[in-house]
Amino acid sequence: MQLRNIILFKKVRVVSVFVLLATGISCGSIFKKEEDREPLARVGKSYLYKDDVEALLKDNVSKEDSASFVTNYINNWATKQLLLSKSKINLPEEQLKEFNQLIENYKTDLYTRAYKEALVSQTEDTIVTDAQLSSFYEREKENFMLKEKLVKLRFIELSTQFLDKDQVASRLDRFNAKDQKFLDSIGIQFKNLNFNDSIWVKASRIVNEIPPLTFENEDRYLKKSQFFELQDSIGVYLAKVTDVLNTNDTAPLSFVKPSIKQILLNRRRLELIRKLETEIIDDAIKDKEFEVYVKD
To answer: How much is the pTM?
Structure first.
């Protein structure tokens, strides 16, 4: 009932917007007669007008480029109009009927989809609570199997000329409060860093960040409690892995929260659309706008 009231309340305003959109072109003919418009080209009874093309021209384009654009646009427009005209003459009648039906179906779908989206966007609740996320996760946990290894780690990239690499490596491995404060204080000297080891990261992303690390050798380094140091001609890469989840393990809630939220919002939206369609039919029957004639 609440959705129906909102729909009825919003209906006049939303419909009026679509009426204006649908009649925008015809309104132009009311305020500006066709004979007042400057034609650029004609194919049969169809005209291309100067103001149609002017709207497409950019202010910072030179006169030469504008002229070239207009010429190409006119030729493309004329080609389409001529092909359209020829197609209506030469294509089989059945095929023309089929195309016309497809056009009508597409137009109907376009307008109805836009109208439903407009109504839903005005009534949709986009808030998803942590309790709703957790509840869905617990119910559907078996459907959240990992397709890729996830890793938690701390990471620092140094230049190959960095002088005190051993101290940085030791502090990154131990990482108590004093170590963290020290590394933060000299972080500007690092080429790259990540001290937030509470976030799950895809192994593929880590491989992309650390060039010496590859899909062939990742199992050797990306192991729980593993500290590793790798080097190439570009830099030195220090990392401490704090946790690992492997392929086919259950994905953690923190990692799949965005996906769950989108699933819940999509389900909510579909339910709203179903209610909208049902109530539109009910209202039309009540107002005698919709009747079904059944023949024996």
So the answer is: 0.67
